[in-house]
C-alpha cells in the first residue's frame, strides 16, 4: 500500500462529480440555513457543513460525525438520511467525516465526539433534516430540468419520477444541478407514521467490509518507508524513567533508533517484530518515588475507612436515622467492593503519522474525539491546527478507552513521532499487554449499604455510601460516581446517598455505562436482598415501588412476561431480575443460571426488554443489547485489574483478564418496547442489568449474596 492508497477520508470526498448536502449548525442547535455544495467534477468542493454526498452513480454517502467502532452509527445515521431522502437502502454508504469541532459537533457535547450513547439521540433530527434538504434540492433540480411543477414530482426508493410525463431518473443525474438550488430553510420532515426505513431491520453498512477483510483499520495503513514504534512503560502507575541502557536493544536487527519520551522509552524499527524485540532488550531503572505502590488489598482497607467519615451529599430525603429506629422492620447491611476494570477492546491503541510535502501532517487513528487529538498533536508537533489532519478510521471497539481527557494516547504518539523528527511515516502501536496494563481503568469502588423494609414490602429507609476515584477529577460531588444511586426509581421516603472521592496515581476513565457499572449492581442486588427478607417477589416488589405507567415498569413487565416469571425454572436453576435506566434508555433483564461443574455460575438464558424511544434500527438495538450482555457478563464473572505487592499490575492479556468465551455466551432474547419518544442510546444500557440479574439468581440458588466482584475469583479463593 502506498501513501496514495491511504487517504480515503480526505481525497475520496473530493473525487467525482456529485452533490454534498450539509446542515449548518451553531453550538447545540440547528441553523435555519442548510447549504448545498458540489463535490468535485463540474464544480469545486465547498467545505461547508457537509453531511451527505450524492454521487453520479446514484449512491448516497453519509459523512458520519461519529466514529464507527462496532456500535452502528454508520448504519443508524444513514437510516435517518435515507428515510427523509426516500432513498433505497442498497444505494446508501457511510464514511467518517473530516475533523471539525464546530461543523461536526456532537450536539450533546458541543464538540465533535462519540460517547455517552449519544450518536443517534443527538443526530436524530439533524440527520433527518439533512436528508430532507437533499431531497428537496434534488426535486427542485429535476423540476427545473423537466420544466414541471415541483409538486408533481415524487421520490421513491432512490428514483425521481414525474408521472404525467413519464420521466424518471436516479439521484446522480441531478447531483450537480441540485447543488445550485437554494436549500429550504426548514425542510419538512415525515410524520413517523409514514416511516419506511426507520424501524426496520436493515443490514449494517459496515458488515461486509469487516467480514471480507476489505474494511481498513489503522493497523492496515502501511505507507512506503513506514517506521514502527513501541514504548516501554512502567509497571507502576506514576513511575518515570530514572535511567536506561539501550546497548543490547540497538543490536537487534531492524531497530533504527531509541528515544526517551515523557511516557517511557520509545523503540523505532523497520517492522513490528524488531520494535518489540528491541523493547524487550532494554534495561530500564524506574523512579518509583511518586508511584502507586499499594496493593489492591491495601487500597480496599483504605476505601473502607472512608465509610465512617462524612461524605459529599448526593441525595437526602426524609430522615434516614429516624426511620431506622422504627420497630417491626427488617434491616440489611452490606459492603460491596468493585475492582478496577480495563476496557480491553479487540484493537489496542494505534496511530499513523505521515508528513506531507508542505510540512503538514496527516494522522490516521480510531479517534473518538478527533478534535482533541488534533489540538494535542498540533501543540506537540509545533504546528497550526489546520496543518494537522486527523483522519478517523474504523476501530475495533473502545468501551470508553479512546475517550480521554487531554488525549493522553495522542500525547504519547505525537511525542514519539516528534522525537525522531518525522522524516519517515510512523506507526505508533500498543500491544495487548500495554493496553491491559496501561491504566485509564474503570475505577475501583466500594459501597456500604443499609436498608430497612416493612412486612408489606415497602422499603422505609435506604442509606448508601460510595467510595472511589472521581472520573471527572472533581473535589466536590462527581455525578458519574453516584448516577443510578442518587436518583433511584423506587419510592423510598427516607433516602441518603453520600460519596467520597479518592485520589490515586492510577488514571481513571469511564467504562461502558460509567457509574451504572457499579451503582446498578449495588442497587439492584440490595433491593432484591431486602425483598427476600420479607418474602416479597422481586418483580412484584419492584413494580409496587415505581409508577405503574413509567418506562421502568414497562420494561420490567415485558422482561418478566418473556421469561414467564413466576413459573418454576428447570431443576437446578434459578432466575434473577434487574432493571436499570442509563443514558435515557430503560433495560430490564432476567437471567437463568445454574452452578457449573467448576462451581461458578453458568448463565443459560437472558431475557431482555429495552425502551430506547423510537427504534431507528431494531437490528442494531438487539445486537447492542446482546453485546452489552456478553461484555457485562464477562466482567462480572471474571474480570479484575489487581495491583499486587508493591503496586505492580498483575494482569497482562486475555489469559488472565479474559472475555467471556463463545461457549459461555447465554441464549439472549431481546424485545424492544414500541415508543414514540425521541430515540436514546443503546451502546451502553445493555451492560448494567446483567450483573445484578446474575447475582440475584446466584443468591437464590446458593444463599450467598455477592459482596465482591468478579464472582468467579471470589468462589475460587
What would you note in describing this structure?
The chain is 27% helix and 24% strand. The strands form seven sheets. Strands 13-14-11-21-18-19-20 form a seven-stranded mixed sheet. Strands 4-1-5-6-7 form a five-stranded mixed sheet. A five-stranded mixed sheet has the order 16-24-23-22-17, sandwiched between helices. Helix 2 packs parallel to helix 3, helix 10 runs parallel beside helix 11 and helix 14 runs parallel beside helix 18. The longest helix is centred in the N-terminal third of the chain and has 28 residues. It is globular. The two termini are 51 Å apart. The N terminus is likely disordered.
Offer a quick outline of the entry:
This protein is an alpha+beta fold and 717 residues long. Strand 19 (361-365), helix 10 and strand 20 form a beta-alpha-beta unit.
| Total beta strands | 28
**Helix- and strand-based class?**
alpha+beta
**What's the rounded overall pLDDT mean?**
91
Which strand order do you get reading across the main beta sheet?
Answer: 13-14-11-21-18-19-20
Distance between the termini: 51 Å
What is Rg? Answer: 27 Å
The fraction of residues assigned to DSSP E strands is 15-25%
Q: Tell me the number of helical segments per DSSP (H or I, 4 or more residues long).
A: 19
Global shape: globular
The main sheet comes to:
7 strands, mixed
Percent helix among the residues? 25-40%
Amino acid at each position: 500500500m502506498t501513501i496514495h492508497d491511504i487517504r480515503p477520508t480526505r481525497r475520496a470526498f473530493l473525487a467525482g462529480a456529485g452533490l454534498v448536502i450539509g446542515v449548518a449548525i451553531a453550538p447545540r442547535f440547528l441553523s435555519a440555513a442548510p447549504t448545498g455544495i458540489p463535490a468535485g467534477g463540474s464544480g469545486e468542493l465547498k467545505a461547508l457543513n457537509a453531511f451527505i454526498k450524492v454521487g453520479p452513480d446514484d449512491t448516497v454517502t453519509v459523512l458520519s460525525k461519529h466514529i464507527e467502532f462496532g456500535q452502528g452509527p454508520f448504519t443508524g445515521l444513514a437510516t435517518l438520511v435515507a428515510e427523509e431522502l426516500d432513498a433505497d437502502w442498497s444505494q446508501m454508504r457511510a464514511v467518517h467525516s473530516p475533523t471539525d469541532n464546530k461543523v461536526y459537533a456532537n450536539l450533546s457535547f458541543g464538540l465533535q465526539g462519540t460517547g455517552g450513547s449519544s450518536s443517534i439521540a443527538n443526530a436524530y433530527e439533524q440527520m433527518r433534516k439533512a436528508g430532507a434538504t437533499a431531497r428537496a434540492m434534488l426535486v427542485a433540480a429535476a423540476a427545473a430540468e423537466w420544466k414541471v411543477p415541483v409538486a408533481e414530482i415524487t421520490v421513491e426508493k432512490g428514483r425521481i419520477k414525474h408521472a404525467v410525463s413519464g420521466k424518471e431518473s436516479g439521484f446522480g443525474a441531478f447531483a450537480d444541478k441540485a447543488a445550485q438550488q437554494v436549500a429550504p430553510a426548514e425542510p419538512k420532515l415525515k410524520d413517523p407514521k409514514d416511516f419506511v426505513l426507520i424501524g426496520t431491520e436493515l443490514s449494517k453498512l459496515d458488515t461486509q467490509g469487516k467480514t471480507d477483510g476489505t474494511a481498513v483499520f489503522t493497523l492496515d495503513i502501511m505507507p512506503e518507508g513506514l517506521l514502527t514504534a513501541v514504548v516501554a512503560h512502567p509497571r507502576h502507575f506514576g513511575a518515570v524513567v530514572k535511567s536506561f541502557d539501550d546497548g543490547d536493544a540497538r543490536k537487534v536487527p531492524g531497530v533504527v533508533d531509541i528515544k526517551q519520551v515523557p511516557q517511557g522509552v520509545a523503540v523505532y524499527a523497520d517492522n513490528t517484530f524488531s520494535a518489540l524485540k528491541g523493547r524487550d532488550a532494554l534495561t530500564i531503572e524506574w523512579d518509583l518515588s511518586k508511584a502507586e505502590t499499594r496493593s489492591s488489598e491495601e487500597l480496599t482497607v483504605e476505601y473502607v475507612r472512608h465509610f465512617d467519615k462524612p461524605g459529599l451529599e448526593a441525595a437526602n430525603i426524609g430522615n434516614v436515622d429516624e426511620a431506622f429506629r422504627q420497630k417491626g422492620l427488617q434491616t440489611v447491611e452490606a459492603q460491596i467492593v468493585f475492582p478496577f476494570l480495563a476496557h480491553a477492546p479487540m484493537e489496542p491503541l494505534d496511530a499513523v503519522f505521515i508528513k506531507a510535502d508542505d510540512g503538514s501532517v496527516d494522522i490516521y487513528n480510531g479517534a473518538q474525539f478527533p478534535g482533541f487529538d488534533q489540538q494535542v498533536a498540533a501543540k506537540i508537533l509545533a504546528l497550526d491546527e489546520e496543518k494537522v489532519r486527523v483522519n478517523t478510521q474504523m476501530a475495533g471497539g473502545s468501551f470508553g478507552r479512546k475517550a480521554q481527557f487531554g488525549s493522553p494516547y495522542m500525547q504519547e504518539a505525537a511525542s514519539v513521532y516528534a522525537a525522531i523528527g518525522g522524516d519517515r511515516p510512523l506507526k505508533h502501536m500498543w500491544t495487548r499487554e500495554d493496553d491491559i496494563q496501561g491504566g485509564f481503568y474503570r475505577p475501583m469502588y466500594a459501597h456500604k449499604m443499609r436498608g430497612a423494609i416493612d412486612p408489606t414490602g415497602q422499603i422505609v429507609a435506604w442509606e448508601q455510601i460510595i467510595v472511589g476515584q472521581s472520573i471527572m477529577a472533581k473535589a466536590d460531588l462527581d455525578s458519574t460516581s453516584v448516577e443510578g444511586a442518587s436518583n433511584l426509581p423506587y419510592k423510598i421516603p427516607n433516602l441518603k446517598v453520600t460519596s467520597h472521592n479518592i485520589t490515586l496515581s492510577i488514571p481513571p476513565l469511564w467504562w461502558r455505562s460509567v457509574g451504572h457499572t457499579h451503582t446498578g449492581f449495588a442497587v439492584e442486588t440490595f433491593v432484591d436482598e431486602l425483598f427476600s427478607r420479607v418474602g416479597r417477589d422481586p418483580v412484584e416488589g419492584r413494580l409496587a415501588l415505581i409508577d405503574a405507567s413509567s418506562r421502568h415498569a414497562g420494561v420490567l413487565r415485558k422482561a418478566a412476561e418473556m421469561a414467564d416469571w413466576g413459573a418454576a425454572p428447570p431443576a437446578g436453576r434459578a432466575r434473577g431480575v434487574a432493571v436499570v435506566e442509563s443514558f435515557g434508555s430503560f433495560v430490564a433483564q432476567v437471567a437463568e443460571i445454574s452452578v457449573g461443574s467448576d462451581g461458578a455460575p453458568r448463565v443459560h438464558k437472558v431475557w431482555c426488554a429495552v425502551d430506547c424511544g423510537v427504534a431507528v434500527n431494531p437490528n442494531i438495538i438487539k445486537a447492542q443489547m446482546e453485546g452489552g450482555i456478553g461484555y457485562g457478563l464477562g466482567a462480572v464473572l471474571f474480570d479484575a485489574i489487581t495491583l499486587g505487592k508493591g503496586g505492580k499490575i498483575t494482569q497482562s492479556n486475555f489469559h488472565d483478564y479474559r472475555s467471556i468465551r463463545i461457549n459461555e455466551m447465554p441464549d439472549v432474547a431481546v424485545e424492544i418496547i414500541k415508543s414514540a419518544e425521541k430515540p436514546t442510546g443503546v451502546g451502553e444500557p445493555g451492560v448494567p442489568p446483567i450483573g445484578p440479574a446474575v447475582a440475584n439468581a446466584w443468591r437464590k440458588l446458593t444463599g450467598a449474596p455477592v459482596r465482591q466482584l468478579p464472582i468467579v475469583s471470589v468462589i475460587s479463593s
